[in-house]
UniProtKB/TrEMBL annotation:
<feature type="transmembrane region" description="Helical">
    <location>
        <begin position="98"/>
        <end position="115"/>
    </location>
</feature>
<feature type="transmembrane region" description="Helical">
    <location>
        <begin position="7"/>
        <end position="25"/>
    </location>
</feature>
<feature type="transmembrane region" description="Helical">
    <location>
        <begin position="127"/>
        <end position="149"/>
    </location>
</feature>
<dbReference type="InterPro" id="IPR043130">
    <property type="entry name" value="CDP-OH_PTrfase_TM_dom"/>
</dbReference>
<keyword id="KW-0812">Transmembrane</keyword>
<keyword id="KW-0472">Membrane</keyword>
<keyword id="KW-0444">Lipid biosynthesis</keyword>
<feature type="transmembrane region" description="Helical">
    <location>
        <begin position="31"/>
        <end position="53"/>
    </location>
</feature>
<dbReference type="InterPro" id="IPR050324">
    <property type="entry name" value="CDP-alcohol_PTase-I"/>
</dbReference>
<dbReference type="InterPro" id="IPR000462">
    <property type="entry name" value="CDP-OH_P_trans"/>
</dbReference>
<keyword id="KW-0808">Transferase</keyword>
<keyword id="KW-0594">Phospholipid biosynthesis</keyword>
<feature type="transmembrane region" description="Helical">
    <location>
        <begin position="161"/>
        <end position="183"/>
    </location>
</feature>
<keyword id="KW-1208">Phospholipid metabolism</keyword>
<feature type="transmembrane region" description="Helical">
    <location>
        <begin position="195"/>
        <end position="228"/>
    </location>
</feature>
<comment type="similarity">
    <text>Belongs to the CDP-alcohol phosphatidyltransferase class-I family.</text>
</comment>
<dbReference type="InterPro" id="IPR048254">
    <property type="entry name" value="CDP_ALCOHOL_P_TRANSF_CS"/>
</dbReference>
Amino acid sequence: MKKHIPNAITCINLFCGCLALYFAFNFRLEYAAYLIGIAAIFDFMDGMIARVLNAYSEIGKQLDSLADMVSFGAAPGAIMFGLLSQAEASVLGIPADILPFFGFVITIFSALRLAKFNIDTRQAESFIGVPTPACSMFIGSLPLILATSGNLYDNIILNPYFLLAVTVIFSYLLVAELPLFALKFKNLTWKDNAIRFVFLGLSVILLALAKFAAVPLIIVLYVVLSIFKKTPVPSNSPLD
């Protein structure tokens, strides 16, 4: 019975992703963003519960990737589609009614990232490239900032050049050979987890000060701290 518990939690992640898609395509982008956040919580929980119960399975691994593809691949692509639709502008000769479809580039590169992750043995203890939940939370934070900032950031977030830049940069970061630390604690000592404690502490401070506007800063902080840490890239990958 216990082996099915992590998979059930993964299915809740998947359900949240399906709901996020529904709301995104109905242009209720803030609801879609909240559901991506809830999906991320369940995505974290399924792995944690699997470790606690020692309930790993091959089907669980595959189910997790399929759920992530919906919640952190299709859903953020749909949110970016919605944001580019709100921008209502043509860019570099691309008509305004065609431009929103470029948001799904995020979905394509999320699929590439998840496929790569499944066969890359280097990513057991850390990540190579930005994880799909981190990318999704960055994109999901944008409609939440729009909804809560009183038009303060509208000119930035709804600028089509900004949205395309976010799409291109994160598409690259998803598959880049960039080593990033994982929030996995084997113990609670400062020596082994200094980078994690610093990241969590600064994240709490940023959230307290800036609320949803802090989320993009936190994702950038995660990448910068990982680069500063200079984690070596293991070489035992079938991709080499």
